[in-house]
Design a protein that fits this description.
The protein is mainly beta. It has a single domain, classed as Immunoglobulin-like. It is built from two helices and 16 strands. An eight-stranded mixed beta sheet has the order 6-5-10-3-2-13-15-14, with no helix packed on it. A hairpin with a 2-residue loop joins strand 14 (about 250-255) and strand 15. The longest helix is centred in the N-terminal third of the chain and has 13 residues, at about 5-15. It starts with a helix and ends in an 11-residue tail after the last strand.
């Protein structure tokens, strides 16, 4: 079972023909926070009021500072929720530990090259740093969204979360932040990318109030170096289904030659597929002459 980001990458592999599975490395840290356990219905009683992302994207590393503001929808009592930040790399390592041969237990995106856990993961609640613990559980894809399940089956995979228990008082905002760095995704011909999914926000109460993602490019990259659908691309990236920056360029504000901003308001990622995430993807920079 593969998540959307893995399927997108594999589409390019199929189109390019000459690429092998080991030529693609998916970035980790692509997931926002998800409520883990303690749900007695389809959604948490906690609403995500806003998420503010500051992402510095480079050819090798991507640095992320994310701030999420939550509100308890219960009017007269506090609510306690385990908040988890998914970590595909940690899930892969644990799956290998439990099942070294890899024929019984699979992690989400098991087919991608094994990579380490998130680097320098730090979590803050209302400005105070809190220690999180790794928690493991099972997830299966439901309507293209990885959804926690209590018991594993043949369609589920192991997931890991950096989890901490948070109490949400009634009528008050609670701010949760996480800071980390991760290796950027890469493909042959010098294609680099970072994907972030908002789909994990679907199980918070109602809509997500507002998302603002500010992207700063480094390592000499500029906005014009990104791969955009409909733009001039090397033939290796011009196939239908190839990995390109999403959503399209008209949805982004260009702040400077090296800065972009994406804003979404009152969206529901479970029912709005166009609001399930975004990708930053560079053009190929070392394509053979016959692929230009």
């Amino acid at each position: 079972m593969l998540s959307r980001s893995c399927l997108t990458a594999l589409a390019l592999l199929a189109a390019a023909l000459r690429l092998s599975a080991n030529d693609t490395a998916l970035n980790e840290g692509a997931y926002g926070p998800a409520p883990v356990g303690g749900l007695h219905g389809p959604e948490s009683v906690i609403r995500m009021q806003s998420e503010e992302l500051h992402i510095v994207f480079g050819k090798k590393w991507t640095e992320v500072q994310a701030k999420f503001v939550f509100r308890n929808t219960k009017k007269d009592s506090p609510a306690t929720q385990i908040v988890g930040f998914p970590d595909i790399g940690a899930a892969q390592l644990e799956a290998r530990r439990r099942d070294p041969k890899g024929d019984k237990i699979f992690a989400i995106e098991q087919e991608t090259p094994l990579s380490g856990v998130l680097h320098g993961m730090r979590t803050f609640v209302n400005g105070k740093e809190q220690k999180s613990t790794i928690r493991y559980g099972w997830v299966k894809e439901v309507d293209e969204i990885d959804t926690p399940v209590e018991k594993p089956d043949k369609e589920s995979g192991l997931m890991a979360w950096h989890a901490l228990e948070v109490t949400f008082p009634p009528g008050q905002d609670v701010t949760i932040e996480r800071h980390y760095r991760t290796e950027s995704g890469s493909q042959v011909y010098g294609i680099h990318f970072f994907h972030y999914t908002t789909a994990t926000g679907g199980v918070w109460q109602g809509t997500i109030g507002r998302l603002q993602a500010d992207i700063t490019l480094k390592d000499g990259l500029k906005v014009d170096d990104l791969a955009w659908k409909g733009g001039k691309l090397p033939r290796i990236q011009s196939y239908e289904g190839s990995l390109v920056t999403e959503p399209g360029r008209k949805h982004w504000q260009t702040i400077s030659p090296t800065q972009l901003r994406l804003v979404w308001e009152n969206f529901e990622p479970r029912s709005e597929k166009e609001h399930r995430g975004f990708s930053i993807v560079t053009k190929a920079d070392s394509v053979p002459p016959d692929e230009q």
